[in-house]
Amino acid sequence: MANMEQKKITRFDLFKVFTASFFMQAVWNFRSLLSIGFSLSFFPILDKLCSTPQAKREFFQRHLKFFNAHPYFASFALGISIRLEESRAMGEPDQSETIDRLKDLLIGPLGALGDRLFWATIKPACLIFGMLGIYLSPTVPFKIASLIITFLLYNIPHFYYRYKGIIEGYEHPLDIYKFVSQNRFEGIRRFFVLLFLLSLGSFLLVYNQSLLSQNFWLLFVFLGSVILAFILEKYWKNFYLVTLVLFAIFMVIGILLF
Amino acid sequence: MDIVLLSAIISFLALDITIAFQVLISSPIFACPILGWLLGDVELGFEMGFLLQLLWLGRIPAGAYIVPEGNIASMIATVLVLLNKDIGYPNTTLAIVFIESILISYLGAVITIYYRKFNNRVLEIVVKEIENVHFKMTLLLEAGSVFIYFLMVFIISLGTILLSQKILPLVIPFLGELWEEEFVVIKPLMLGIGLAFVLPIFKDAVLKRQIRKNG
Q: Phi and psi dihedrals of B42, rounded to 5?
């Protein structure tokens, strides 16, 4: 492995890859999934990793193979690939197989971790927090402030893991498994689960109270639609059908009750 | 504001959904107030964002799973509500636009499938260009693919808004005269359906279960 004094890649180079990684899903396709965006994320440092057109061609051919991960957590695979490609560029033994194997091994964990942490916890927690902020804020400036907090609440961990993934992948390419274990993210997950819980609980409390003060039947519509949609969704598993059927049912109820 | 420009802004914000950045700016609570501000009623934009956000939150775009394109639908719905607010009948407008947004979210999901199929072709061209040592061409192809997505959303937005603007001014007063008061159920209904879709992921998050992909 390339030692510290000989390194071609600087922190600023890794930062450039970090900025390019924001287009990771730009050419998402059914055959190779993330591979094009993943490969093109290396573009800012391509000249440092490959000195000849032939080497560049082989580089892209290696990385255009099937690859998938959560878009934020794919940065770990980016960091690993940069480090191993750098070693190769510096004349160390060919690590193509190691890169392929590591990337293949990481597809599952990086996808599962990111999906569970960001899509299923941080994103809904932040957006419901933002909804609550909008609902409770009396004036537009307060609503804007609550949206700014929501934006930061989501994007601080987003940017952090995107960047940190590249750095850690680069610094610890062969023992990356230590950095992508579920336990490592348990603290942040718990924080956002708590936020999710508090935001949803507060929203329900405040909104139900507000409906009750307007008209009891509005509360009936709200709770009735929650229960009915939950049951229908469980059996039908079809977003469009559940939504349209409930709309029809409750419009009829509305006509009958109001 | 010009509808063409509005459609371009919707298409630009839609890039944030998956194509670029993914910083949440395309989510209803962010995008709808922006559109509200551009159309001169930021308060209504906030309200639309609040009402529409929960609906799409329960759909997780894990792996290759294609979810209803709720963010695009919410943006178009907000524009339609804002453009028709002077007709009166706010509940009726919201009820009609809500149904329209569900259909747009379906259309958006179909377009995502075609866009991804189109990207299969882009992959073939990228591989060919790499073979021919035209590396800069790959960046151009990436930019081209992003532009195609922008264009697809632009066409959906412009087409839907133009068509709706022909139909809604006729339908809203007609239905509003009949059922404006009865349609008061639309807001709690939208939030209720949205909440029902969020509950399973909430349960999974609390119980540390693996992600489920609802059909």
A: -65, -35
